[in-house]
Amino acid sequence: MTGKRQLSIVVAAIAAMVAGAAVAAAAENGKPDPMQIARGAKAWSDNCGRCHNFRDPKEFSDKNWDVIVNHMRVIAPLPGATARDIKVFLQSSN
Amino acid sequence: MKRNSIAVLAAIAAVTGAMAAAPARAQSDGTLQERVRAMEQQLQELKKRLETTQRVAERARTEAGSEARRNIKWHLGGFAVADYRATDKEGDSDQFGAAKFNPIFLIGYKDLVFFEGELEIEAGSDGGTETVLEFGNLNVNATDWLTVTAGKFLSPLGDFQQHLHPAWINKLPDRPAGFAGGGAEHLSEIGVMVRGAFPVGSMTMDYAAFVGNGPRLASDANDGVTLKAFGGDLNEDKAYGGRVGLRPLPYLNVGLSGMLATLKGNQGAGGLVTSGDYDMVVGDAAFTRGNWNIRGEYIRAHLDSLNSAVDSDSTTTLIPSSTWRAWYLQAAYRLAGISSNPILKNVEPVIRYSQFHVTGLSNFKTNEEDRWAFGLNYWIAPSAVAKVAYESKDFHNKSDEDVFRAQIAFGF
């Protein structure tokens, strides 16, 4: 193995470690699961327009959506898991 | 701050350039050194200020983070309405009215405990202000599929009252015939309720079941049965009710509701008072696909015969068994489905037909009505709407009435 090739492998390994650490850090910071965001987007489009117009996620802050979605979970009503998916979608889109 | 840094750096560069271009010719070494020292001092001050700014920003970030992590969170929402009404009814003047403000307080502890309360603050016709507690209840999310609610809550019977009546959601400025006070719709209850929703394959099923103080016979029989929450009970019998809903498709929703109660007759000026069984059945359905919004609801309520006074001045009399029926069918279409014109796409024509019929005691029939309503909405924002509507009211036991309404509503 040439020195140049060895260097490439070391650089690639370091890059992979850095990327892995970044993903782990994102998970630790509570960054949402992309699948949950996708489920939330679908649940939002399936449920929120049944009674009223769709509200833009940007209308409210994360903190507001926390409470508003809980209110809608009770009054709609929505299954808890569906409400959590919708909340994650709204909070990641505002 | 950034501008200051740039200015200082630019000045240093300029001085350095000047020094390189013409050293010591224009100025003595001593003067130059003095100026450089002054520059260095300014730079140090600038660094200190930058550090202070960074510390303040870091503190703000930390505080914002702890705010987001707080377990108790709240939100003040609600809606506001302004209304104009013109009528051809003799003796009734055209007027601005229904200036209402409904603040809704939402407070939650994690996803576990939740309080919701709504006040309706309205400008009264006598110049005063009327305030009503629309609802105020505590909720505990026991599982993903069950929430326990206690306090005053909107009736879960049917769809209109619990989901559609706020002015920024209701497609017309008015409620359907028979869906207001004095009609057949159950408005609110004080008691305990369990409700929730759960998936059934690809469908969603929802349910609600409550026990509460229940409705009362109105003190004036012309008003029928008062179907709003009372903070007390006239008899030991409680009202039991609930709804089962099914969403077989995301855009299709059907529900069946019912309630059982016992109503006590009113004492009036004297005589023997008895109680009568009261039951209600409600069916509702909604199709909300794309720009279409089509929905309807049917209510049938029945009261067995009982002895009661028909008003506070009369003695008790036998009230025959009576039945109330109210229903509506409504269709709305947002023109965004056929036009991308910036004005037209926000326009929404609406049509609604509703009926309120009663059999039994003649006093209960005062408000019997067949009504057509035609409306045109302009959506200023997703939760702000300007509405105009024409209503043709065909009353059975009083003069007919044509009404023009204009309304602006904003939900926030």
Describe what you observe in this structure.
The complex is a heterodimer of chains A (94) and B (412). Chain A is built from four helices and no strands. With 94 residues, chain A is mainly alpha-helical. Chain A has two domains: 1-31; 34-93, Orthogonal Bundle (Cytochrome Bc1 Complex, Chain D, domain 2). In chain A, helix 3 runs antiparallel to helix 4. The radius of gyration of chain A is 20 Å and the shape is globular. The N and C termini of chain A lie far apart (50 Å). The model of chain A is unreliable at 16-28 (pLDDT under 50). By secondary structure, chain B is α+β, with helices and mostly antiparallel strands. Chain B has two domains: 2-64; 145-411, Porin (Beta Barrel), CATH 2.40.160.10. Chain B is built from three helices and 20 strands. A 16-stranded antiparallel β-barrel of chain B has the order 1-2-3-4-5-6-7-10-11-12-13-16-17-18-19-20. In chain B, strands 8-9 form a two-stranded antiparallel sheet. In chain B, strands 14-15 form a two-stranded antiparallel sheet. In chain B, strand 2 and strand 3 (113-123) form a beta hairpin. In chain B, helix 1 packs antiparallel against helix 2. In chain B, 33% of the residues are buried. Chain A binds chain B through residues 45-47, 49-56, 59-60, 62-64, 66-68, 70-71, 73-82, 84, and chain B through 67-68, 73-75, 77, 106-108, 111, 114, 116, 139, 141, 143-145, 147, 149, 154, 162-164, 168-169, 195-199, 204, 206, 208, 250-251, 253, 286, 288, 379, 382-383, 411.
